[in-house]
Amino acid sequence: MNFKHYFAILVTFCAVALVLDGCKKPTDNITWSVNTDVYKSPILVRFVNANSKSTTALPTSFSVEISGQNADQVIMGSGGTDFEVMNGFLPLALAETATPSPQNPVVFNVYANIPGFAPISQTFIVTSDTTAVDHTLLAVEYANPPDGTSVVDAHTSLTNGIAPATTISTSTTATMTETSNISIADGTQMMDVSGNVINAGDLESKVVHFGTGTESSMLSFPGGFNPVDVSRGGQSFHDVTFKTGGFLSIKMFAGSTEVKNFSKPITVQAELNNNLINPETNQPVQVGDTIPIWSMNEQTGQWKYESTATAAIDGNGKMVVQFQAVHLSCWNIDWWFYNPCRNVLRVTVHITIPNFRPQYELVLVDANGQYLGGLYTDNTWATVVTLYDGLTTVIPVVPDIGLVRLVVYTRRGDPSSIIAQTALFNPCTQGAITITIAPPGPPQLINVHLNVTGKCTNKRVIANVSAWVFIHKNSDPWWNWNIIYVRRGQADFKLEQGVSYSVETYYGGGYYVTSGVFDKNDMNFPTEHGLFGNATYNAATNTVTANLSFNLNCR
Amino acid sequence: MKHMILVLLIGSSFIAKGQDIKDSAIPPLQASQNQGTKTNIQGGVMPGFKHKTAFTVFAGTQGFGADIRYGVLPKLSLRLGAGVTPVNAPNAFQLNDFNSAIGLKVNFTNAHLLADFQPFHTSGLRLVFGAGYFIKARTDADITPKQSEQYGNVTLTPDQLGNLKISASWQGIAPYLGLGLFRVFPRRIFNINIDLGTYYLTAPKTTIIATGALQPNEQNNDQLQQNMSSYRWLPVLQFNFNFKL
Question: At what angle do helices A3-22 and B2-10 cross, to 10 degrees?
Fold first, then answer.
């Protein structure tokens, strides 16, 4: 054997060993995962048409303004500060540096001026850096206002920006029994936000009068009934509760310039609902009763006390209040309660069918059924919540109204769908109350374990996103959604078995959609708008594991 | 990742010089007899056979170490020894998916008992077989992202990303089979010979420990374990420096 033989043997050994070892790379079929939940306090703001009967959808996308003392800490839920609402959903979050707590809450305001809708504003208080909350804002469409409201969109003439004596009136409707009149005195000059005179020949006035007779009108109350910050006499007040007698959203345009001020005050007269109860007397409003008048800075959500009006009888024989306004915004006829009840109200839900989790609406109403507020969960007013047997929640701020009751509606804002109610009680002294719901037979449910990932298109990396997922039963009304927060790419919930749902999410500026029937079999989701994946069924646990992904730009 | 394993397999190598291949042939039996060694066959020892011993230091793909060699029979000798492979190889490989600083450590320590069987008198070719006990046999890769990564609009800093510690361990008994080239014992004071062979290691046990945003990658361990299940051959190309005792 010579050196050539030795060399041949050596090469053979090395080759064999390397081939055996090299047949599979250690990283084959491995995709690296990254959790992207760096932001805090996920908040979903959902904009919907206040009139659930309207077929007018909100614009597919529109921008909102974020303002307020901690606005600089607010970002989009998937990063960035391009505050764009997509299909009515606005996922927000707080920056990594934010440290919200009950002692140091993060406060900011969301303002939207949606074409064709009245301006909408809501102040948010964030006290937790982990809790995910969702909040629905109802936008009032001028062309199709919700029940309990009336709208006027009137054009009148100006002379060089100066109005003659003009009255703009809202009318009664089938669901709105109150009228209102806005009177402009002869010679009133229209002025912009800076107080500059507007030289125009046309005045467009858009007025929405919100009555107190329907819940849909009450749900549209700008900013809610528990404003964060109220100013009166130069002082700021917190923990305020409003009991409203109605409110008006007034917008005027001289030519194309928005009118914000007048050289002379305008006079506003608004009728009151016959069933309106004065919370200070717990009796229907009487002539001579006084009601404070407030205005709101829509951009900041700040309410300001303006004057006090006195109830009187108008020419129609209806109870009415009258006040003067020198600027335009939302004008509110409200009794107010500054930190009225130190006691909280603990609400326990009892559902007679175990494991049934219906999406019903639990609200607080006064003795005449006037909406006062929705179930208070996670420090956010939510009007439609998933209820379950044993659910206990605390309403930390309750109105100082002598007699209220809890009611449950199966359909949002529809008193005819009432399914449960309590007896009247005093919310300040009650402490705790249980409401029992006896629903009809529940549907067959199936467990869903949802995985949602963003797939990097240029790397073998998937992002376990933290994002809101919107699930809609295709046979449900457009406004009824299951809102799920997927944390680090995972969430567990239940859906109706064998029912078709659309599944949507909004992440990183992209809106992704797919649909499917969650049933006892495996399936592939169709890629409709960028959301793709599959589902496998485990009979032992009656669970569908749905794996959904969308493509993500990674760098 | 593949490179990580290659580094492990190849390790450090050393090149010996100065060995005359022609000296490798085993001397004829008669020559031993002429030297007046023991001749009592009935006593279990071949006539003229002398139990040779040598001290060996070696270096090769499995690291470096030392053996004691003992000639049991003219064609059979045993060696008992130990070897270590301490290799630190920073940035020996790169992950395309993360711009990372990668620290790679290979640490193999074994004790072994091998037999050299020399079937041909006229050739230095040997069949080598035996086993080693790998007291330590692990490779550790520490992967730390060096720069921020962006996923959509979310930017994660290196601190937020955390790091990955990927390890594989082959600890246990491993059989060895190979060939030896050149004579086992030096004719005079010193010689060099070569081993070509392979250990068949236990199936590796892998672990992934991840921190920060990379934490969910611990669930990739099952796939890693499966991928590496065939990584059991530890090829040996080893140079032995033998000193006659």
Answer: 150
Assess if residue B118 is contained within a domain.
Answer: yes
- Please judge whether B2 and A26 are an interchain contact, meaning their C-beta atoms are less than 8 angstroms apart: yes
User: Out of A1, A25, A553, whose CB is closest to B2?
Assistant: A25
Q: Does the distance separating the beta carbons of A20 and B4 come in below 8 Å? A: no
Chain B residues lying within 8 Å of A27, measured CB to CB: 1-2, 224, 227
Q: pLDDT tens digit string along B129-181?
A: 999 999 999 999 999 999 999 998 899 999 999 999 999 999 999 999 999 99
pTM greater than the 0.80 cutoff? no
Token pair of A74 as six digits: 């607010």
Q: Report the distance separating Cα B19 and Cα B42, nearest Å.
A: 38
The alpha carbon of residue A509 is apart from the nearest alpha carbon of chain B, in Å, by 8
CATH of A149-338, one of 2.60.220, 3.30.70, 1.20.120, 2.120.10: 2.60.220
For residue B41, being part of any structural domain is answered with no
DSSP assignment of A478-534 equals TT--EEEEEBTTEEEEEEETTEEEEEEEEETTEEEEEEEEE-SS-EEE--SBB-EEE
Domain that holds residue B144: 2-35+47-244
In a mutational test of the A interface, the residue from B151, B164, B217 whose CB has the highest number of chain A CBs within 10 Å is B151
Residues of B in contact with A488 (CB under 8 A): 216
Cα Rg of chain B (Å, integer):
24
Does A18 contact B235 at a Cβ distance shorter than 8 Å?
yes
